[in-house]
């Protein structure tokens, strides 16, 4: 297990439970149907650091020997010597990797240096200054985040802006001028296009803005306006802290994010997420508090990142390439006692309110039903005789989807999400999606204006836009429980990452349980740290499909399914039936035929 420090978990829990404050800038719940009233936002809680009892710490560390790999130590915003990396645990420190070679754990190299093939691509995308793929699971390097915060040109540009109109009347021309000014200062829009009128160039820049700041939305919505009103310095600082949070999660093995208790801890007095990715709900019994943001708050304090100026001082002190290979040792909170290398875990997926009626009838039922309970994804851990919900995230279940029939016609078919007991025993990094024969050809190709047909390769090749995202967990059903020769059935249902965030917020899937890509990656790292995981490497696929249309032929070849980890023992998964609403109490087995449609031109 990663190194842990001596700040007691129970003290943090106590402080989180009592130090409740109302947050400024709460956002609307992202997990409700469009016709449902917004749920209560999660309660923001102040950091537990100020009230948790502190253990005395050494004022300075020194390596125990000369021939070791050393890591600088930071305490209370100051350098406190260095330690041999392998001694950090014994010294009550946690090594946090801030280097540009960091990836989520699922893409990390093994002891012999081998790694999933996608690791190289991940690092390539993470190091591109304008890729802005954090919303899709590709965390920018800390060097990029630090450079943005320290950008004097941006700061000088923004100093001339008046952001007040954004909060006063978002539809006014003055607000549009302020919004466009922010986009120009961030380098997302050309100055010549900032004319005080909302047009395609502005909306396009806003899409990039949302990707950069991890906002799920559209147009000039509430979350976007809230982010705009913060100003560039504050946004860049929160982005730096979010980058720190993912690295703290990886270093500590903590995944408890407050979603199970409907609370959020602040980091240096700030709520880091500008969009709510977890399910806003009533607190679950024994739900874990927000240990992750609490640990990130401690990490920021020890590094001295209390505000944008303080973080800039740290960046300046490190120099131009200060984050390229930077690892730091910090006194972080100890993990809960139930954390260990072989945690007793289980997963429960509640399908929520289920509508089996045909699409039109189901839409009418939803309106009559009122507030619709979305599917929920909960991970539990055993702590002695009790169970603790570690997290509660929104997810998806199946619904009506297009399918290609044997005669080539397109129809709607209800894609059911299996109910019952399953297990996760296969975890796949950067999975490929192998379209089943029932996937319509039109969904796999795009047609240019000149009629040329090309593949939508990004939806099946490994990558963040893949239909399975960057992580996939296969739902296997145990058919025979012979320990020596167990038999398993794969019904095609998975838990996986996705960039189809609209479906996670309000829609349905083809039967699988979708998660936001960045959360799926965080979950995969947690599983690899708390389960014995055997690397099996690349899975051979040998998939081939030919698509012929209008005298054109395109070929799909998929050589590998992805990089396989086997979890030992498997993680139990139970999918609950949920609440079936309406007269139809089971999915319709017949299809609804549709009129033929041509592929959309691009």
Highlighted features:
alpha+beta; 3 domains; 602 residues; L,D-transpeptidase catalytic domain-like; 14 helices
Structure, explained:
With 602 residues, this protein is of the alpha+beta class. It has three domains: 9-28 and 45-109 and 119-147 and 234-330, no CATH class; 164-230, no CATH class; 345-585, L,D-transpeptidase catalytic domain-like (Beta Barrel), CATH 2.40.440.10. Helix content is 25%, strand content 25%. The chain is built from 14 helices and 22 strands. The protein has helices at 9-18, 118-126, 142-149, 152-159, 164-168, 173-185, 200-212, 222-230, 232-252, 291-303, 308-318, 359-369, 501-506, 517-530; strands spanning 43-45, 70-75, 78-84, 94-97, 263-265, 327-330, 345-350, 353-355, 376-383, 386-394, 400-404, 410-414, 420-429, 445-447, 453-455, 471-480, 487-498, 513-516, 532-549, 552-576, 579-581, 592-593. The strands form seven sheets. Strands 7, 9, 10, 13, 16, 17, 18, 19 and 20 form a nine-stranded mixed sheet that branches. Strands 11-12-22 form a three-stranded antiparallel sheet, with no helix packed on it. Strands 1-5 form a two-stranded parallel sheet. Strand 19 (532-549) and strand 20 form a beta hairpin. The chain is globular and about 70 Å long. Mean pLDDT is 89; it is low at 1-11, 13-40 and 47-53.
């Amino acid at each position: 297990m990663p190194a842990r420090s001596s700040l007691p978990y129970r003290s943090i829990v106590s402080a989180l439970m009592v130090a409740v404050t109302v947050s400024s800038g709460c956002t609307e719940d992202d997990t409700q149907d469009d016709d449902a009233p917004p749920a209560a936002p999660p309660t923001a809680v102040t950091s537990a650091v100020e009230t948790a009892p502190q253990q005395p710490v050494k004022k300075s560390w020194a390596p125990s020997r000369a021939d070791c790999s050393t890591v600088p130590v930071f305490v209370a915003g100051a350098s406190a010597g260095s330690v041999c990396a392998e001694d950090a645990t014994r010294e009550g420190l946690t090594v946090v990797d801030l280097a540009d070679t960091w990836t989520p754990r699922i893409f990390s190299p093994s002891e012999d240096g081998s790694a999933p093939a996608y690791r190289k691509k991940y690092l390539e995308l993470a190091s591109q200054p304008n890729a802005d793929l954090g919303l899709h699971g590709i965390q920018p390097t800390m060097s990029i985040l630090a450079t943005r915060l320290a950008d004097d040109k941006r700061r000088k540009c923004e100093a001339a802006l008046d952001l007040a109109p954004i909060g006063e009347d978002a539809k006014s021309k003055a607000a549009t001028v302020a919004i466009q000014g922010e986009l120009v200062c961030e380098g997302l829009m050309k100055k010549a296009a900032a004319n005080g009128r909302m047009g395609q160039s502005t909306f396009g820049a806003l899409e990039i803005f949302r990707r950069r700041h991890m906002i799920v939305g559209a147009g000039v919505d509430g979350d976007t306006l809230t982010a705009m009103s913060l100003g560039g310095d504050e946004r860049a600082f929160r982005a730096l802290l979010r980058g720190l949070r993912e690295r703290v999660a990886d270093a500590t093995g903590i995944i408890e994010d407050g979603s199970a208790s409907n609370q959020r801890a602040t980091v240096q007095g700030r709520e880091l997420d500008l969009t709510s990715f977890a399910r806003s709900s009533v607190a679950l019994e024994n739900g874990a508090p927000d240990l992750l943001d609490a640990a990130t708050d401690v990490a920021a304090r020890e590094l001295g990142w209390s505000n944008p100026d303080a973080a800039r001082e740290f960046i300046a002190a490190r120099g131009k390439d200060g984050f390229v290979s930077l690892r730091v040792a910090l006194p972080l909170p100890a993990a809960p006692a139930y954390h260990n290398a072989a945690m007793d875990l289980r997963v429960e997926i509640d399908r929520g309110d289920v509508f089996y009626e045909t699409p039109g009838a189901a839409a009418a039922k939803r309106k009559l039903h009122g507030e619709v309970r979305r599917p929920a994804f909960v991970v539990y851990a055993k702590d002695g005789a009790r169970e603790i919900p570690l997290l509660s995230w929104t997810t998806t279940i199946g619904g009506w989807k297009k399918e290609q029939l044997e005669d080539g016609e397109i129809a709607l078919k209800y894609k059911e999400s299996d109910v019952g007991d399953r297990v996760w025993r296969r975890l796949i990094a950067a999975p490929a999606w192998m379209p089943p024969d029932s996937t319509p050809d039109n969904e796999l190709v795009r047609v240019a204006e000149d009629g040329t047909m090309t593949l939508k390769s990004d939806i099946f090749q490994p990558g963040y836009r893949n239909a399975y995202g960057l992580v996939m967990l296969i739902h296997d059903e145990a058919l025979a429980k012979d320990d020596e020769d167990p038999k398993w059935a794969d019904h095609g249902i998975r838990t996986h990452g996705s960039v189809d965030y609209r479906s996670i917020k309000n829609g349905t899937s083809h039967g699988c349980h979708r998660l936001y890509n960045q959360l799926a990656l965080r979950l995969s790292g947690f599983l690899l740290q708390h389960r014995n995981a055997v690397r099996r490497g690349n899975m051979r696929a040998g998939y081939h499909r030919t698509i012929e249309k209008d005298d054109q032929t395109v070929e799909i070849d998929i050589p590998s399914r992805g990089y396989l980890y086997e979890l030992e023992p498997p993680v139990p998964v139970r999918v609950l039936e949920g609440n079936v609403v309406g007269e139809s109490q089971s999915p319709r087995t017949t299809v609804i035929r549709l009129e033929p449609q041509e592929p959309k031109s691009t």
